Amino acid sequence: MPSTIPKALNDLLISLNGKGYKSYKILQGKSFQYPPFTLRFEHVQGDPYAAPSRLTLSTKLSEIGLASTLYDTPTKKLALEDHLLRVLHKKVLTLKNKIKGSGRSGEISVQPPSQKVILRSGITISNDSLTLILFAGLPGNGRNVLAKECIHLFSEILPSAWEESISEESIDLDQVRNSINTLEDYYALRNALKQNEWVAFIADGSNLPRLSGISDLPLQNNSVAFLAPDELQAEVNLPHKGKVAGMPVPKGITLIVGGGFHGKSTLLNAIQNAIYPHVSGDGRELIATHPSAVKIRAEDGRATQPINISGFMDNLPSVSSTKKFSTQSASGSTSQAINIIEALEADSSLLLMDEDTCATNFMIRDARMQALIENNREPITPLVDRIKELYQDFDISTLLVMGGSGDYFEAANRVIAMDSFRPIEVTQKARQIVKKNPTSRKIEIKFPFPPIKPRSRDLSALNFQRGKKDCVIQTRQLITLVLGQTEIDVRYVEHLVEEGQLEFCGWILKQLKDRQNFTEKQTETVKDILKEIELQGLGSITPYNNGKLALPRYQDVLAVLNRLR
Q: Disulfide check for 430: which of 177, 344, 415, 474 has CB 3.0–4.6 Å away?
């Protein structure tokens, strides 16, 4: 096969053969033409065991057969970026073990996309220009350059990646249009939520179950397609799918009930994930949820800076006041109260909860327990007594999976039972049960729920420096964010779905620290930063594009900030 490597690059690599590995550094900053693409070496690794070198591949979209009508709106642009990155990523996965060498020699990758369609820095479209970030491990034998293998990498392996995925000959325009149509339908569905005062919508035929508890891929075999009960069914008119039937979830308090293993949590998880659009074929493309929704759970051991949790906790032993409560290790019930207040501070209007991950003593206190432990000896006001107040006075809707207590029936606006993964309308039945079996429990509200006032956190201890480096921002999966010598535990911030979102939260917090002005609200500063990013792109607050970032939500940036010890 004739070499497609540019002669200048070929000759340069031959001249490096057998030299020390650091001689590869001569490539840094140099560009080479692979018409219609330009390949540029942005950063060259120092040894074969280091993180692979970062390259940019750029071209004009018109030169790879993509008309401007495919990216002339923000939605089309996002869909096209996502589609091209996925196609290239799929091709790159087939290129393992093609190159010999030590360490990470020949390792090739791009930013891995999840099932969600999110703005990412691994691919950007600006005007008519496309830029992709590639990572390639330059081949070495120990600490020496392997020129022959490197020439093979840049003459056949890498060129085949882009030629067989994003060249004019390989791009499937029907798939591109399908990706655009899918995303446009999702945003139309999200707009329908607001118009109809719904907080979620699940289309008939949606595939909710996932492959496993650790996989976000759809379950293909033995999966029951979603079908709305006749009493709850509604239709929306989407620009490409046309009329779509499904089950809306109105504003208010909705209970999801049913026996164990009948699909309650599966439905909630699908709704939880639908704050993001999903890629075509995922099964959840036509599920949309209010974008401010926050999953609430107990989080034993989390820390918090001073916060007013008096609406749920009052007269705690050894605590002078819960209006400015702080701790380095919250209990399950206390952490859940904190998480709700923080969600309201972050302008969330929909709380999602699953009893499996909630603190029982925070959720309920039945009549028998009330009779045993008098109210003046119990500092917790359970959610069952506040949930209706949160909706009526604060316009906060709640979607709650509850299979173990009927005490929420009085407050619920709608009750949906899951039976073998099929929803059934049981609201009237639940209300009849309430009438026939009145509870003797007493509502334990002592005072109105306090107003929500945004806080400013103390950032004085936050130092991004580590050793000789002025700024260190790292992630350990979706578990820990490392900022200098500070570590933030984020494992229970469930709406962060890609590691690039977590890393970008670090950069936003860096901006917040740099702009810190104690005369203004931190929440407004975070909003300003996100607005600038929306207008100027992900690279507007970072020193360079590392090709690994993704856009988080406002709610999730604050969730990370709130976990700063």
A: 415
| 41 within 8 A of 55, measured Cβ to Cβ | yes
Long-range contacts at 366-373 (CB < 8 A, ≥ 24 apart)? 366/405, 366/407, 366/439, 366/441, 367/439, 367/440, 367/441, 367/442, 370/441, 370/442, 370/444
Provide the percentage of residues in the chain whose pLDDT is more than 70: 99
For residue 2, what pLDDT band results from cuts at 50, 70 and 90? very low
Residue range 124-159, pLDDT digits in tens: 999 999 999 999 999 999 889 999 999 999 999 999
Same domain? For 149 and 265 the reply is no
State pLDDT tens for residues 331-383.
999 999 999 999 999 999 999 999 999 999 999 999 999 999 988 889 999 99
For the four alpha carbons of 489, 495, 500 and 506, in that order, the dihedral sign comes to: negative
pLDDT of residue 517: 62
pLDDT in tens, 63-115: 999 999 999 999 999 999 999 999 999 999 999 878 999 999 999 999 999 99
Tell me the pTM.
Answer: 0.95
Q: Is the pLDDT of residue 3 over 60?
A: no
Query: What is the total count of domains within the chain?
Result: 4
Among 436, 465, 495, residue at a domain's last position: 436
Q: Round to whole Å and give the CA distance between 503 and 482.
A: 9
Distance from chain centroid for Cα 521: 25
The token pair that represents 228 in the structure block: 């709305």
Q: Is 152 found in the same domain as 73?
A: yes
Full residue range of the structural domain in which residue 120 is found: 7-171
Answer with the one of 289, 318, 352 that is the final residue of a domain.
289
Determine the distance from the C-alpha atom of residue 306 to the mean position of all C-alpha atoms in its chain, rounded to a whole number: 27
Establish if 147 belongs to a structural domain: yes
Instruction: Name residue, tokens 């939605």.
Output: 75
> Do 277 and 347 belong together in one domain?
no
Residue with tokens 């709106």: 73
Cβ atoms of residues 431 and 231 within 8 Å: no
* Residue 454 lies inside a defined structural domain of this protein: no
- Cβ burial of 376 (10 Å; 0-12, 13-18, 19+) is exposed
Judge if 14 and 163 occupy the same domain: yes
Tell me which DSSP letter residue 358 carries.
Answer: S
Instruction: Detail the DSSP E strand segments found in 36-78.
Output: 37-43, 53-60
**Region 269-282 average pLDDT:** 97
156 and 189 together in one domain: no
Q: Are residues 39 and 165 in the same domain?
A: yes
The answer to whether position 143 is within a domain reads: yes
Strand spans (E) along 278-412: 287-289, 294-296, 304-307, 325-327, 350-354, 397-401
The mean pLDDT of the chain is 95
* Dist. CA 560–CA 565, nearest whole Å: 11
Q: Mean pLDDT throughout 498-504?
A: 98
Provide Rg for the chain, Cα atoms: 27
| Same domain flag for 307 and 409 | yes
